[in-house]
Amino acid sequence: xxxxxxxxxxxxxxxxxxxxxxxxxxxxxxxxxxxxxxxxxxxxxxxxxxxxxxxxxxxxxxxxxxxxxxxxxxxxxxxxxxxxxxxxxxxxxxxxxxxxxxxxxxxxxxxxxxxxxxxxxxxxxxxxxxxxxxxxxxxxxxxxxxxxxxxxxxxxxxxxxxxxxxxxxxxxxxxxxxxxxxxxxxxxxxxxxxxxxxxxxxxxxxxxxxxxxxxxxxxxxxxxxxxxxxxxxxxxxxxxxxxxxxxxxxxxxxxxxxxxxxxxxxxxxxxxxxxxxxxxxxxxxxxxxxxxxxxxxxxxxxxxxxxxxxxxxxxxxxxxxxxxxxxxxxxxxxxxxxxxxxxxxxxxxxxxxxxxxxxxxxxxxxxxxxxxxxxxxxxxxxxxxxxxxxxxxxxxxxxxxxxxxxxxxxxxxxxxxxxxxxxxxx
Length: 426
What we know:
By secondary structure, the protein is of the alpha/beta class. It has helices at residues 11-58, 74-88, 114-126, 139-151, 194-207, 221-236, 255-259, 279-288, 304-310, 332-344, 352-369, 374-382; strands at residues 60-67, 92-93, 96-104, 130-134, 155-158, 187-189, 212-217, 240-246, 268-272, 294-297, 318-322, 387-389, 392-394, 407-413, 416-423. Helix 8 (279-288) packs parallel to helix 9 (304-310). The longest helix is centred in the first third of the chain and has 48 residues, at 11-58.
């Protein structure tokens, strides 16, 4: 700069030099400071951006729902209940955004598949954002997924599994211990189990004086299990069990098996199983052969798909189902029914209310935990007591089962399930 060439001997110039030399020093400091500030701003911005990304990730909690979603309508009915609960909560819980991931655990016929359920469970546990696993509907599918979710500490809540051996000992060797490799229970269900439902069906048959009974089942954990429980209670009540056979669930014609019992003095044919596992060809065969015995099944066939596929043959079918139709409920149950009807323009399915209930329980646990942590959320689910739900006040017992014992009797009339009465299991 020119002022650096001013003669040193000149007093005024010397002063000018010193002043401007100081200015240069300040200028250099300013430049250094500016660079430092710029670097600081860049670093701080990057830090904030990183925190924002991390916070954004932490603010999302995923809930996985696994049910058969094709052909039969029970899976969609349950998911509708789940979505209704989430919509009422605005898809949030304790400042976390809730994302629902619906998985199809069945094939094109609506039949659950072990390989599909296994892969769904694996994807769920390996995703760090998944905090809750809602499912399954089929008890056999639960036997596949529970050990997987258990190993990863992921809470699993079912709105539809009813096989007692999933939670309670004494029903099948090794159960339920083999489902919980960590030794910590992570599985809960909001619906009563077959230890209540099976006997209720037998008591109902006794009340209707249906003395002579033949039993069929589909061979699965749920179907064979509830058929055995029904048979045990029926025998205890003094009813005559004339036979019990496991059907080939893939068959579409049971006239051969039915022909063998056609001439028996039958009052009732009981089927333990689900709609896609033989219920339709069985009831059709009964009508085609002119067998006059009544037909009864468990909640596994209480879905519109059974009526739609069986047609007129379904008329008069007796169905014992856990819980009761929400149409006849009061308070929260009535509110749920009206909201469901408004949202989906159809009545709730037999398990829609339990799908809603399971989701509400999950959201409550997330709120009480206050953090995105599987262990904390699992702990909060296990502590739920005196919950004011759709079907009344209930708690989870030490096994993870609901204390609810409601079972209702329904009859197919004019292509619809019509509530008949509440059933007793004693």
